[in-house]
Amino acid sequence: MKKIATLILGFALSLAALAQNARISGVVRDSMQPVVGAIIVQQGSSNGTMTDADGAFALNAPVGSVLEVSCIGYVTKTFTVTGDQVLDIVLEEDSVMLEETVVVGYGVQKKSVVTAAISSITSDDLKATPQTRVDNVLQGLTSGVTVTQTSGAPDAGSQVRIRGVGSINGSEPLYIVDGMPSGGIDYLNPNDIERIEVLKDAASGAVYGARAANGVVLITTKKGQKGAPKVSYDFSYGFQNPWRKPQVLNATEYAIIMNEGYLNAGQAPRYDDPASLGAGTDWVDAIFDKNAPVVKHDINVSGGTDKVDYNISAGYLSRKGIIGGKAGRSFYDRFTYRQNVGVNIFDMSASRNWLNKMDLRTTLSYSNINSAGISTNSEFGAPLGSALGMSPIEPIYATPEMEESYKTMYPA
Questions:
Q1: Best label site of 53, 147, 234, 406, fewest CB within 10 Å?
Q2: Which tens digit of pLDDT belongs to each residue from 102-117?
Q3: 0.85 surpassed by pTM
């Protein structure tokens, strides 16, 4: 008799426990689309589930328990189970957490959970070290990335190598600007860049295939934000000077060395009084243009509403070379214009979960580069190489005696 009573009591308790459980179902979404992979879990237990490709979920939980809805990049929400419910849960973007994410080839991931070799450069990093070229931005800001300037000419680009030389046929990385492959980044204004991600291993760049063999540089440009129009203007003016120059012989030292050479060859010395020649001409110092100017102008207009956001910028850069800059033989002038406009065609997220929003974004980019450079890295043809071999005894400007001598040697 006692066993039967115990069985009846246990059965009643189990029915009561089942009666206290509620079935919770619904959809988790953000302001634009369903959230895939959101986690719904009962606090203090392992009872939970995850949203599917449509953002839908279903879960049994005791009445009175607290459920927590979370996803990377969104603010976590909690609610109390009061009974069987069909919910439409809208998650808000977490701006603080989004700042801690990085862009990868197949989406966006939280920086703390990324195991691939990825380096990130934000707009704050770009402001700390003003640069005139985008490739120079990578220098010193990312580990495993070597940036080498090909020459000192104003129009000279830089070689970017990610984790060394990848191939004898080419080692340049793949550049992706706003999701589109780009042959180079010389046309970009560093002031237009929001962030740069460098994918350095095969796992992170696998989505781009063989083109990512030498690494991938992902560049995201600035977009407009909702709010009143903002206008900004940046101006900078600087100078360039050689920080060191090759040491050469002055006229007296040159004459002494030449006399020794003639004596060693069994000939009479060429210069009778080397000390009278003085310092002579320093041809290396003469070809340098002191205080070569670098001028930069940037203007930006951005803003947006619920339907439209825009970011329009224009920039001008003028950079003279420290050799030939004043003569107009070495310079780099660049004008850039970039327009990024997004328009919301329609938004029906509140009424349905499929085909509920359409956005149109257009990007217009224009760049005009006018540059000239002198011969570099040549022992005989380059100005610096020629200056090293010039005699310091020769003056920079011809004297009347020299002109008469030239007329005699080369009659008209």
A1: 53
A2: 555 555 554 434 445 6
A3: no
